Amino acid sequence: MFPEIDLGIFGKVRLMTIVVVIGTVLMVILVRQAAKRAEKSSPFKERAYIFPKLYISFFGGYLGALIYDALFHTAEREAFEFQGIAFYGGLIGGIVTLYLTMRFMPAYTSFTFLGWLDMLTVPFVVFHFFGRIGCFLSGCCYGRVTDSVFGLHFPDQPEYGLFHNGEKVFPTQLYEALGLLIIIVLLKWVFRKHRLMNYLILYPTLRFFVEFLRGDNRGGYILSLSPAQITSLILIMIPIVYYVIKWKGKRKKPSDFRGRCQPQADG
Question: Is the pTM of this model over 0.85?
Fold first, then answer.
């Protein structure tokens, strides 16, 4: 809606850049606070452990976002070119990079890899929320054309190849941002255990349905589903398998036989 602001002698700055920077700073603050709280019961300096790895993961996530977008637009572009970024690529790239840094940059921590991911989940969703607000301000990731009261007019941006020709479209960026706010509340105060696994149920479900309203170029479709919808279905399987294994593990625990089969006293 408002792609740029003019800062005079400093030139024009994209509002998405400003909003993403705000989201990044908030994420760093929240992670720092979480690690600081963890240090109260940990003998290790958890902040010193996680931040070098987290900064490297930002770059890994950005590279993943570029590769994911290029991969699913190769057919139409007739080349593997880096022209945009995609959220799921960033999520997967960031997690993989974080794992590799923890694996090959040995240091001392009280938490497992999954434990750290649980701790990072809420700060990351906060970052993602600001990212979607940035998408709304820049006019990308828009929805399908609609005549309903739920539609908004987005300005044409010829320099980025965006033309709406005065038609209203669904502001899917705001729909997803609202969903992310709800996810933050649920993960923070309701589903406080296994936050990553619960996130991998909540967000892919949200994204799967929002995708039906998207009107921008989604890449190649498979069985009428966009790449993001296919990825959502795959990601949802991870927590399902995790909880099934966890449930089966509890069922296989040996029963408590106290009070049974006690040796009989001589009589």
Answer: yes
